[in-house]
Amino acid sequence: MEKLRDRFWIWGHPTNSLYGCFGLNKPSAMSPVDGMQYLGATNLFYVPMGRPTDREKESAAMACAKESGWSIEMAAANPQRVTEIAALAKRHPNLKRGIFDDFLNDDNPSNNYLHYTPALLAGFRQELNAAGVSMWMVLYTKQLSMAQALTPYLETFDGISLWFWNEEDIAHFDRHLADFIALTPGKQRLLGCYLYDFGGKKPVDPAGVLFQLDRAKTLILQNKLEGVILHTNVVADMGFAGVQAAKDWLAEHGDEPIAAHEA
Fold first, then answer.
1. How would you classify residue 149: left for phi > 0, otherwise alpha for psi between -120 and 50, otherwise beta?
2. What domains lie within the chain, and their CATH numbers?
3. SS3 for 199?
4. Please, what is the angle between helix 241-253 and helix 32-39, to 10°?
5. Which residues contact 107 (CB under 8 A, 6 or more apart)?
6. Helices 206-221 and 173-183, interaxial angle, to 10°?
7. Furthest-apart CA atoms within the chain: distance in Å
8. Are 228 and 9 in contact (CB under 8 A)?
9. Among the residues of the chain, which ranges form H helices?
């Protein structure tokens, strides 16, 4: 029987890759796989952030994950990036997802939606789907107001993940989730949960992490949300209370069975 932890992902970055960024001044030794296992999740996205990465080697390391996924970076200029992921999926059967990070962000000029057309994205999706890979994108709550105008883009994806970049935005969690669900009919949905406040450059309130995970559990059981992505391995060994809260929550609830039903 499927368990709650089977719906939990890690947003994986190269080990220690955020040292010196966003107010993080502690080194981290945790790899993406280490972070997944430490927190008690079973699935893993790997997001290199443009760093040179041996995808074959890292895909082999992720074989222990129930499902894995790769970010799709600068594919408009380099469509072979999509072909590479499709080819990897044939050699690594747990590779099931490709994701466009920061897809609607103006401050992601090298890889945001302005470089793509819906037709180009539809072609990428067709190629990935043929290899058994679904195509995903990142959406922030601050972009929900503009997303309606970008429906032709949103429609080209199999799944969309929602993220609360600013911690104070969690106070409006239910409203944002209702808007997200209304905006994404027929799509798979994941909730991104930050274990460090990157927007505020400070540790998160662990109570906010627990609130998000409790609400996500309800939405998963209502079949409105597929699961949760915990962000990220590179803060998981820094002693933050928000990380410990997520780890403890999964230790308590991770083995609970899922009996999804329509709300």
1. alpha
2. 4-253 (3.20.20.140)
3. coil
4. 60
5. none
6. 40
7. 45
8. yes
9. 32-39, 55-61, 80-91, 118-130, 144-147, 151-154, 173-183, 206-221, 241-253
- Taking the C-alpha atoms of residue 139 and residue 240, their distance in angstroms, rounded to an integer, is 25
Could you read off the pLDDT of 101-159 as tens digits, one per residue?
999 988 888 889 999 999 999 999 999 999 999 999 999 999 998 877 889 999 999 99
Spatial separation of the C-alpha atoms in residues 96 and 132, rounded to whole Å: 6
Residue 199 sits at the vertex; the CA angle it makes with 24 and 100, to the nearest 5 degrees, is 100
- 254 is written with which tokens? 């991770």
Nearest partner of 187 among 143, 136, 148, judged by Cα: 136
Task: Give the three-class secondary structure for 95.
Answer: strand
> Are the CB atoms for 157 and 137 separated by under 8 Å?
yes
Q: Return d(Cα 97, Cα 70) in angstroms, integer.
A: 7
pLDDT tens digits, 169-195:
999 999 999 999 999 999 999 999 999
Residue 211 DSSP SS3:
helix
Report the SS3 class of residue 232. Answer: coil
Closest CA to 113 of 158, 59, 63, 72: 72
User: Which tens digit of pLDDT belongs to each residue from 49-72?
Assistant: 989 999 999 999 999 999 999 999
Burial of 10 (0-12, 13-18, 19+ CB in 10 A): buried
Show Cβ contacts of residue 242 under 8 Å, excluding neighbours closer than 6 positions: 194, 195, 196, 203, 204, 205, 206, 208, 209
